[in-house]
Amino acid sequence: MKILILGFAKIKYMPYLDFYLRNIDCKKNEVSVVYWNRDLKEENIPYEHVKFYEFRAKLDDDDKKFFKIYSFIKYKHYASKFLRKNFDRVIVLHSLPGVLNWRILTKKYKERFIFDFRDLTYESIPIYKKIIASLVKCSAFTSVSSDGFRPFLPKECGDKIYTNHNILEESLFHRDCGVNRIKSSIIRIAFWGFIREERLNKQIIKSIAGDRRFELHYYGREQQIALNLKKYAKDIGTSNIFFHGAYIPEDRYKFVQNTDLIHNIYSESKNVMLAMGNKFYDGIIFYLPQICMQGSFMGEIVEKEKLGFAVDPYSERFLDSIYERMKYVDEKNFKNTCNQFLHKCQNEIKDVKEKLHFELR
Q: How many angstroms separate the CA atoms of 360 and 25, rounded?
């Protein structure tokens, strides 16, 4: 079987690609992956028996809208060259490559493409929302990375929409990192990943600065926002805020041992308020409580399932409420709670795998 996977970022920024390549027999099938190298830097591609096709075009998050649209059109033309060939199945990673190529997908590949929906983008635009609905209806099946996105998809297609959680299977072999973490009298809060939301994080830094009950650690590439935050922390004279710089995925198993609470607070857009981030799953895998934004979908989940706390960083009782609630976290009960929720997620992932194997039979 000839399978095409349409990616919309660099390989290392598409960890969800790993799920599909792990569940496709790449020796038996002819698998091609299109990806977008946006920073023009070389990267190590760890997969064998897969053909990779690189679309090279510089694009930064803060580029002007006109330039982004121009780059999207160039990507569309590049991807359409592959779609005009004859593939047996197409896997579309992210909504934008689906929208850009919706006509050929819904016509030529009707019920032969898998739609991986993992972000809200322009669903407030009626024509965009209509195209998304068309993609879902014409897909073999659609997977969502968060149940918070389901209300934006056609209700009548509920039986073909599956929840696929962002769990990195490699992490499951390192759960003891959380169990055996180094104890401390200070609550060590850690953020890892792409550092953004400058205003929000300045507020968090301002609150924690000088509070001897807490430390705040940032692990991630120090791009402009991270540099601004680092300077801000220095300017206000903090001694309990730390920036550790870039890391490789395996490094998480080291700094998890020095973490008591995960900073998983986002608020910048409707998308992130409804999304399920990778750190959410790190929390349940490594038995770490987490703090999420009050009113967010993750905030609702952590409160309902007792996996952490929904907080308001702008509240005067922001830190006091965290400190008080952390005192009542029972490690044994919390571990059982994490295991139960992880089991639920794994069952839903199993359903996606079975459906994927059925479509690729």
A: 9
Residue 61 tokens read as 């998050």
Give the integer Cα–Cα distance in Å for 349 and 352: 5
**Maximum CA extent, the chain:** 62
Distance CA 204, CA 329 (A): 22
Q: Would you give the end-to-end CA distance of the chain in angstroms?
A: 9
Averaged pLDDT, 2-24: 93
Give the three-class secondary structure for 117.
Answer: strand
Domain boundary among 138, 164, 190: 164
Instruction: Report d(CA 8, CA 156) in Å as an integer.
Output: 28
Q: Which stretches does DSSP call E strand in the chain?
A: 2-6, 30-37, 50-56, 89-93, 113-117, 141-144, 161-163, 187-192, 214-219, 241-243, 261-264, 290-293, 308-311
Q: How far apart are CA 251 and CA 274, in angstroms?
A: 28
Neighbours of 234 (CB within 10 A): 11
- Tokens 């792990």, residue located: 22
Residues 6 or more apart whose Cβ sits within 8 Å of residue 84: 104
Q: Residue 350 domain-assigned?
A: no
The 10s digit of each residue's pLDDT in 199-213 is 999 999 999 998 999
Calculate the alpha carbon distances from 359 to 94, 116, 212, 335 in Å.
19, 14, 55, 36
Question: What length is written for the chain?
Answer: 361
**Residue 354 covered by a domain:** no
Task: Report pLDDT digits (tens) over 101-149.
Answer: 999 999 999 999 999 999 888 888 999 999 999 999 999 999 999 999 9
CATH number reported for the structural domain that contains residue 84 in this entry: 3.40.50.2000
Say how many CA atoms lie within 13 Å of 207 toward its Cβ. 20
Q: Which phi and psi angles does 140 have, rounded to 5°? A: -65, -45
Which residue range(s) make up the domain with 136? 2-164
Q: Which amino acid is at 135?
A: L
